[in-house]
Recover the amino acids of this structure.
C-alpha cells in the first residue's frame, strides 16, 4: 500500500484503534506490529509514522486521554520512541494510564469452566 499525505487523518484513525486494542490487551506494539495490525507496508509506514504519532498525541492531549503513542516501542530495546526520550517514570506512568483507561473492559464472568451436566435423554 502506498501512502499519500492526504491519507494521514485516516491512518491516524486506524493507528488509534489499533493502539486502543493493544491497551485493552495490556500490550505494547512495535512499529512493525502496529503496521501489520492496520495492514500497512512497513517501509511506507515508517516514513509517515512520526507525523501520524504526532497527530495522535495532539488528539489524546486535546481529549485529556492517556497518550496512546506511549504504547509504540522499539523492538530491540523495548523502549518508547515518539516523544518519550527514554524509559522514565513519565513514560511508564502513561503506559499504565492507557492500560487502566482501555483495559477495564468488562469481561463475561458468568461462564463457568465447569462442565455442564447433560440432560437425561428420554427413551
Amino acid at each position: 500500500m502506498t501512502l499519500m499525505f492526504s491519507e494521514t487523518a485516516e491512518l491516524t484513525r486506524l493507528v488509534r484503534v489499533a493502539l486502543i486494542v493493544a491497551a485493552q490487551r495490556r500490550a505494547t506494539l512495535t512499529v512493525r506490529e502496529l503496521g501489520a495490525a492496520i495492514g500497512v507496508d512497513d517501509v511506507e509506514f515508517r516514513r509517515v509514522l512520526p507525523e501520524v504519532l504526532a497527530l495522535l498525541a495532539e488528539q489524546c492531549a486535546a481529549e485529556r486521554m492517556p497518550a496512546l503513542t506511549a504504547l509504540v516501542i522499539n523492538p530491540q530495546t523495548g523502549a518508547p520512541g515518539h516523544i518519550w526520550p527514554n524509559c522514565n517514570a513519565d513514560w511508564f506512568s502513561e503506559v499504565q494510564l492507557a492500560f487502566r483507561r482501555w483495559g477495564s473492559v468488562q469481561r463475561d464472568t458468568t461462564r463457568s469452566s465447569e462442565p455442564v451436566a447433560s440432560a437425561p435423554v428420554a427413551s
Confidence is low (pLDDT under 50) at residues 107-123. The CA atoms of residues 73 and 117 lie 47 Å apart. The beta strands are 29-30, 72-73.
